[in-house]
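Q: I'm building a small set of examples for a reading group on sequence design. Run inverse folding on the following structure and report the sequence directly after it, with nothing in between.
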């Protein structure tokens, strides 16, 4: 891995992010019969309101908006908002359209891409257990690719969009909360217009984006909370951990998504995919084993955290 010591806080943030992310497909089942687009727009709207309230109460609103004054930051912020908006769209659209397992496969492939980027772009190295994990996962994903005769658009959007977003966040180096808030703010006008035009359950355009019954408002707020906390943890972990390690840990998310999709949502798993998920699950165990060993070493020698 990197010659710098790994951050215990980074590991905790990563595990928290991927665990919370995996709960979203289950939560989204409560939002039927709304379309994925409507849910996405409400996620953006209510995330903005949630972040605005937190920043106002903590007195950090002015500082969080400061990057907008620097015009050199605008291209990166706009690009980031587009990339993350696409990812959120895929994340809410797939479970509402019976493609949760495709979503899971995309997130199984994503760590491989991140490990490759970490090794060849950021010059990171892998320890033996991480090589074993990567090998097992690669074989598993290869089997899945062969069985599916290609990759769906859901998978392609995930494995292309998320690495680009993470690389942009590393390059731009803005404060985590500020970058996340501004990206949401840029998407807000589109979200408001989209909500009002969609109508969905009311059968036509709405007079304003809050023209919903209380139970729907509470569900939308839940989407914002469940989407914001893990995303902030993810961005923060991205700054604290080597990309290859973050990629390997991220196998936790699709593994949990698969478990929830199969046992809770009730999507069917073809028998041919058992080997795929078994190999990837074994790779995850090796990753967790390696991470625990490194945490134990770091704790024993009281190494400083990675900045």
């Amino acid at each position: 891995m990197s010659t710098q010591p790994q951050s215990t806080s980074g590991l905790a943030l990563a595990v928290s992010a991927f665990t919370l992310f995996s709960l979203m497909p289950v939560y989204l089942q409560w939002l039927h019969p709304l379309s994925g687009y409507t849910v996405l727009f409400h996620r953006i709207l209510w995330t903005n309101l949630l972040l605005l309230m937190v920043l106002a109460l903590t007195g950090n609103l002015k500082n969080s908006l400061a990057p907008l004054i620097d015009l050199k930051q605008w291209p990166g912020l706009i690009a980031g908002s587009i990339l993350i908006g696409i990812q959120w769209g895929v994340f809410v659209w797939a479970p509402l359209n019976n493609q949760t397992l495709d979503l899971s496969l995309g997130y199984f492939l994503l760590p491989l891409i991140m490990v490759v980027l970490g090794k060849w772009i950021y010059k990171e190295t892998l320890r033996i257990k991480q090589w074993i994990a990567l090998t097992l996962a690669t074989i598993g994903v290869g089997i899945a690719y062969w069985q599916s005769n290609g990759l769906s658009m859901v998978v392609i959007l995930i494995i292309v969009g998320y690495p680009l977003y993470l690389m942009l966040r590393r390059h731009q180096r803005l404060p985590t909360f500020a970058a996340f808030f501004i990206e949401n703010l840029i998407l807000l006008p589109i979200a408001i217009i989209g909500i009002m035009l969609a109508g969905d359950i009311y059968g036509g355009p709405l007079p304003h984006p809050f023209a919903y019954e209380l139970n729907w408002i509470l569900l939308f707020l839940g989407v914002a909370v469940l989407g914001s906390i893990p995303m902030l943890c993810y961005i923060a972990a991205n700054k604290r951990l080597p990309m290859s390690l973050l990629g390997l840990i991220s196998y936790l998310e699709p593994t949990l998504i698969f478990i929830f999709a199969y046992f809770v949502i009730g999507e069917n798993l073809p028998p041919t995919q058992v080997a795929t998920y078994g190999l990837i699950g074994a790779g995850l165990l090796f990753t967790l084993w390696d991470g625990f060993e490194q945490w134990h070493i770091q704790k024993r020698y009281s190494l400083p955290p990675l900045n």
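The first helix runs from residue 8 to 28.
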